Amino acid sequence: MEIHFTSLHQIDHALDSVKEVDIRSQGQDLTDYTKRLITEITEGTSKRKFRFKRDTTEVRGVIADFITGNYEGKEINAKRLMDVEQKAQEAIAHLNKEIQKGSLFQAHLQNGKTSIVVISKADQQQFLSNEDFNLKSGLPWEKKIFKAFLARIEGNNVVETFVYDTSARLATYWWDKFLELEEVYTSSFNTKTALKLLDSKVLNSLKKKFKADHTSIRNKVVGYFQSQPTFEMQTFLETVITEYQPISADFPKTKTIEKIKDLPDKYSFDSQFPIAPEEVKARKIRNNIPLSDGMDLVLKQNIPELDSTVNAFADEEGRKYIAIRTDSGYEYFKSKDEVSENNQG
């Protein structure tokens, strides 16, 4: 991917000013930072699809200039973001909340015939300097915190626009007020589609061979959607699959992760979105395992947490059993054992 242009502006609300930083004159570390930021944004898996409300918005006009090689509008975007953030800060001041300070990074890239424009606000973090142990602020090197916008342009047409946010929720002031975008997929559509595809394209393929793992993972999926305000692909994978300890030794964890990661691009829904609770209500955690026509095993927690107390085996004649280690349950059935022992005596 060829980089045509990059810029970085520091935004100072207190001084009501924006200041451009010459990336090339600041040393290799800042250059490396911006390259890594570009990679994280262009290859990011957690994003939401948007479109411009109008073709005549201010940011859309600057993007049109960027792809022709005119980068004078870089300061227009920086000043616009400062104005939007100042107004957003006034709106939330009564909540004792503060919009994170940061710098605006902009880039024009080329990937074959496709132009790519990246606009990102990199949030600053406070830290104690190792040199004088005074509190300072700066851009985080390892775990970057940013809000980002990416547009793919072919000719003069914007064919795709995505918004990224490393925080739990997409900041409304960023995509609505600053970028003037509107969502392509609603939260309701995203939630309903994600749940349906996780069932039909991933979980159902596990049901026949990995019954216990299927039940456990399905319950973790439902639990995630019931307890989290936002779906974010990487967090979802870590919570539901990556940290999961399979019951079956040959459970295809890596393959399952890849199938889930491919769902949004393959079936057109977002990989980061607010979860719509009304679309989750019909989903229930399954806690009944049928044992026979007249008996079910009722679980109050996921199977992996019961792994040490529930075991399955078959006898020499091929008859299948489960054994449950339980002191309280034994009290209900011990009389049967005593009768059997008396008969044998």
Task: Describe the structure in your own words.
Helices cover 37% and strands 28% of the residues. Helix 5 crosses helix 8 (253-267) and helix 6 (211-227) packs antiparallel against helix 7. It is an alpha+beta fold. It is elongated and about 85 Å long. It has helices spanning 28-42, 58-66, 74-92, 172-178, 187-203, 211-227, 233-242, 253-267, 327-344; strands at residues 2-12, 17-21, 48-52, 102-111, 114-123, 125-128, 135-138, 146-154, 157-165, 181-183, 230-232, 272-274, 288-292, 295-298, 310-314, 320-324. The model has no long low-confidence stretch (mean pLDDT 85).
Query: What is the terminal-to-terminal distance?
Result: 83 Å
Unreliable stretches covering 5 or more consecutive residues: none
Give the helix level as a range of percent.
Answer: 25-40%
Strand proportion, as a percent range, falls in 25-35%
Radius of gyration: 27 Å
Residue-averaged pLDDT, rounded?
Answer: 85
In DSSP terms (H or I, runs of 4 or more residues), the helix count works out at: 9
How many strands, what sense, and barrel or not for the largest sheet? 8 strands, antiparallel
Helix/strand/pairing category: alpha+beta
Q: Please count the beta strands (DSSP E, at least 2 residues each).
A: 16
General shape? elongated
Spatial strand sequence of the major β-sheet = 2-1-4-5-8-9-3-10
